[in-house]
Structures are given as structure tokens and as C-alpha cells.
Amino acid sequence: MLKQNGRGATEYEASVRTMRSGSRMALAAVALAAAAAATLVPSAAAAPANAAEACTGWRVIQVNNNAAGVKYRECDRYSGLNTQTRAEFYIWDNRHDGKVAQVYTATGSNLNGRWHQTWEKFYAWGNESHHSPLVNTGWHKGHDVKVLLKAVRG
């Protein structure tokens, strides 16, 4: 029987009764079942790397007359019923005013008009001479990404 452990990995669990006359047959059945389970593991994982992936075009958010900005895009990948999403973005702090650009990102889904969040994180950038390196949030469960920008005291 296939089951999922606490880390999300699929494990194979088998219990076999061995009898004197049928022990070789039981071992062969376990080996065959384990081989079948090993071939099922990639398809049982949530949205494998070879799943269909699509990204939006780049979007820009600016605050306080372009004192801070973020250029971002959303990417989704689908595999069967599993959907994952991520954000990629650059952060700008364009003004030497004691504030830094802070970006809040969250992933989740809008179901029946309600937001169901699965992940969130804050990122900050305060170097006025150039934008941040590309930030990739990684894949998380959901269909949508929220990106919010603020200029906050740093």
C-alpha cells in the first residue's frame, strides 16, 4: 500500500506473512510490488519538475513617487490535480530617505471569494545604487500570488 509520510514523501508499506512453503513466492511478490511502487513515486509527488509551467508577463508596483518599486511575475505549474505557484521579482529602493523597500509575498487560492493562504514571507532591500538580485520564492501550493510593497523605516 502506498502512503504519504509527514514530510510529504511517498513510502511503500508492505506486510507479508511468510510460510515455509510460500516464502519465496511472498518475497517475489514484495519485490514486484516494491518495483511497481518505485515507478509510481514520481507521478505521486506534487507537481514534479516536468509539470506544465506558465508565467505571466512582468508587472511593476511603485510607491511614494517611485521611492520604492518591485517588478514581479507569477508562475504556475500543474500536474493532475496539484497546482503550485511562485513569484519572481526584483526590488528597488530609489531614494536615500532612511526607508527601505519591503515586499510581502503570499501564495494561496481564492475559493468562493475567500482567500486561503498556504505560505507567506517578507523581503526587504535598501541599496539605492542598484536593484536586488532576482528573488524566487520557490514553489508553494496554490493558484495565486499576492505581492504587496511598502517603503518602511530601515
Quick overview of this protein structure:
The chain has one helix at residues 23-44; strands at 2-4, 10-12, 52-55, 59-63, 68-79, 82-93, 99-111, 114-125, 135-136, 140-141, 144-153.
Write up what this structure looks like.
The chain has one helix at about 25-45, and strands at about 1-5, 10, 50-55, 60-65, 70-80, 80-95, 100-110, 115-125, 135, 140, 145-154. By secondary structure, the chain is mostly beta strands. The chain folds into two domains: about 1-45, no CATH class; about 50-154, Immunoglobulin-like. Strands 3, 4, 5, 6, 9 and 10 form a six-stranded antiparallel β-sheet that branches. A hairpin with a 4-residue loop joins strand 4 (about 60-65) and strand 5 (about 70-80). The longest helix has 22 residues, at about 25-45. Mean pLDDT is about 75; it is low at about 1-45.
Notable traits:
single chain, 154 residues, mainly beta, six-stranded antiparallel beta sheet, 14% helix, elongated
Output the helix-strand order: EEHEEEEEEEEE
For the biggest sheet, the summary is:
6 strands, antiparallel
- Count up the helices: 1
Shape: elongated
